[in-house]
Specification:
By secondary structure, this protein is of the alpha/beta class. 31% of the residues lie in helices and 20% in strands. The chain is built from seven helices and eight strands. An eight-stranded parallel sheet has the order 1-8-7-6-5-4-3-2. Helix 2 runs parallel beside helix 3 and helix 6 packs across helix 7. The protein is globular and about 40 Å long. It binds D-xylitol-5-phosphate and zinc ion (ZN). The site of zinc ion has 6 residues, from strand 2.
């Protein structure tokens, strides 16, 4: 079963508690948490404090996506805050093997993310070490952007690599996913589909989540 992970970045901060509860009641199992530092990406979102605040209010899997330079300084804070998956960008980390091992040692599931133009070959050595590989289908930094079509072939190639190497990490696709393209993203090989504006950006988040979830499994 493919899973949609709504991105909290697009939540209506005034109604966030109600929206998160509505998603959980609708059967949503993953909450995507976009962390932006204003350096790796040209935007600032929120940090581990918010994750800590959300944690007691939700039993969803917390899927934190660090779009930050030098994420090593933040790993411990996210472990303490209650992140389940912690994903770092290969473009932002100097010693990726060490960072992945540290994330696992802290009790979280490590993930690696690639910007749209970063080659899959940068993951060759680390795929056996991670629980998740995230393919960006927009240039990270903002919700509500358009899906970059060539990301689809990248997902297909990653799914082929996973099959041929007998690995079992999750493939996550992030950016511009909607009820209209979720079926093709899932068919390309994504297990987890991040949807920000297509879920949190709609007046009825539970219905919007159900629509994308249904399309992903159609
Ligand atoms: C992009 C973030 C995404 C984004 C997705 O920088 O990593 O998770 O919030 O939002 P939509 O689904 O609106 O493209
Ligand atoms: Zn994200």
């Amino acid at each position: 079963m493919k899973q949609v992970a709504p991105s909290f970045l697009s939540a209506d901060i005034w109604r966030a508690a109600e929206q998160v509860q509505a998603l959980e009641d609708a059967g949503c199992r993953y909450l995507h948490l976009d962390i932006m530092d204003g350096h790796f990406v040209p935007n600032i979102s929120f940090g581990p404090g918010w994750v800590k605040w959300l944690r007691p209010h939700s039993s969803m899997v917390f899927d934190a996506h660090l779009m930050v330079e030098e994420p090593d300084f933040l790993l411990e804070s996210f472990a303490k805050a209650g992140a389940d998956y912690l994903t770092v960008h290969v473009e932002a980390v100097r010693h990726l093997d060490r960072t992945i091992a540290h994330i696992r040692d802290l009790g979280m599931k490590p993930g690696v993310a690639l910007n749209p133009t970063t080659s899959l070959t940068t993951l060759d050595e680390v795929l056996p070490l991670v629980d998740l590989a995230l393919i960006m289908s927009v240039n990270p930094g903002f919700g509500g952007q358009k899906f970059i079509p060539y990301a689809l072939q990248k997902v297909e190639r990653l799914a082929d690599i996973r099959r041929s190497c007998g690995l079992d990490f999750l493939i996550e696709v992030d950016g511009g996913v909607t009820a209209d393209n979720a079926a093709s993203v899932a068919a390309a090989g994504a297990d987890l589909l991040v949807a920000g504006s297509a879920v949190f950006g709609k007046p009825d988040v539970a219905a919007a989540y159900a629509a994308v979830q249904q399309a992903a499994n159609s």
